[in-house]
Design a protein that fits this description.
four-stranded mixed beta sheet; single chain; Alpha-Beta Plaits; two-stranded antiparallel sheet; alpha+beta
Length: 307
């Protein structure tokens, strides 16, 4: 055998051993066979797969990676088996995957029946660079659910507090609408509900839904914090109150992920119990490329960003 062919044979043998260790020898075999005969290659590939036992449902299920939503849902159910004081809800947002579609913002509006002017999860657009080297980044900004929330101590009637799970909650019945908390929040994560409706000023006439009928939907109750809040008039809560993101607490206590998480088309938003070392969020916040907004303020936010 010529030296060149012998060298090539040795290199090819080493390559096959390496690929065998990494579990892709079947793919290599298919590649080699395709160079000769597609029919023979397909037959050889199917025979090898059959030999490996990979056609059984168990083997197929084992090879296929589950959707990240399924993993988070299972972790959520596991977390709910623990006492509430042992859970630590956190949100991780991967800025490398966010495309600025605003699906999370719209999902939040629909889930919590938010009126005009009230937004729990805006997506901030940041542009950097100089033309022609310009880059745009999208930053979803929910409530940070701070460990040391500056909005809590400024409330004169104790209408906002941090519950056992670390979620900063609101008591709409107690809130007097002073909006001190809006000023205290360094993330601008709180807004005030002034009772506006999307249908205000829409026409009324034959064949037109109009304000009278369409407004019925906006007056229907929402169910934040597990309570029923119909918007019957301008004096009933939550009209006149400060409002904010609460990680869809009414959903997670029923074993359902927050609306912004389930509607993210890029799977850029992750949610779970950081006290569970096996959870996805615990894995993500341990990454070296993680950061939090305005950490220098000592608020200890529970929303992490991957950059």
């Amino acid at each position: 055998m010529p030296v060149q062919e012998e060298t090539r044979a040795v290199a090819d043998s080493s390559r096959r051993k390496f690929l065998g260790v990494t579990g892709v020898v079947a793919g290599l075999a298919l590649f080699d066979e395709l160079a000769r005969s597609p029919e023979d290659a397909l037959a050889a590939y199917e025979a090898e797969i059959e030999a490996l036992g990979s056609r059984t449902p168990q083997a197929v299920a084992g090879r296929q990676s589950a959707d990240v939503l399924e993993r988070m849902r299972a972790e959520l159910e596991r977390a709910l088996q623990k006492p509430s004081s042992e859970r630590r809800w956190v949100m991780v947002i991967d800025l490398r995957k966010c495309i600025g579609c605003h699906a999370c913002t719209i999902a939040c509006v629909a889930e919590n029946k938010l009126p005009p002017g009230v937004v729990y999860r805006p997506v901030i657009e940041e542009e950097s660079g100089t033309y022609p080297n310009v880059m745009r980044r999208f930053i979803p900004r929910p409530c940070m659910q701070c460990e040391n929330p500056p909005c809590v101590p400024v409330c004169p009637v104790n209408a906002t507090w941090k519950n056992e799970e670390g979620i900063v909650a609101m008591d709409y019945e107690r809130c007097i609408g002073c909006r001190y908390c809006l000023t205290a929040c360094p993330y601008s994560a709180r807004t005030a509900d002034f009772g506006f409706t999307y249908t205000e000023g829409t026409p009324v006439g034959a064949g037109v839904v109009g304000e009278k009928n369409a407004d019925d939907y906006e007056r229907a109750a929402n169910y934040e914090y597990g309570n029923q809040y119909p918007r019957e008039n301008l004096r009933s809560s939550p009209v006149g109150n400060a409002r904010k993101c609460h990680f869809c607490q009414h959903r997670i206590l029923e074993g359902v992920l927050p609306a912004c998480v389930t509607t993210c088309i890029g799977r850029a938003t992750l949610f779970g119990d950081a006290n569970d070392p096996e959870s996805l969020v615990a894995e993500m916040i341990a990454q070296p490329n993680v950061m939090r907004l305005k950490e220098e303020l000592g608020t200890e936010p529970r929303v992490y960003y991957l950059i």
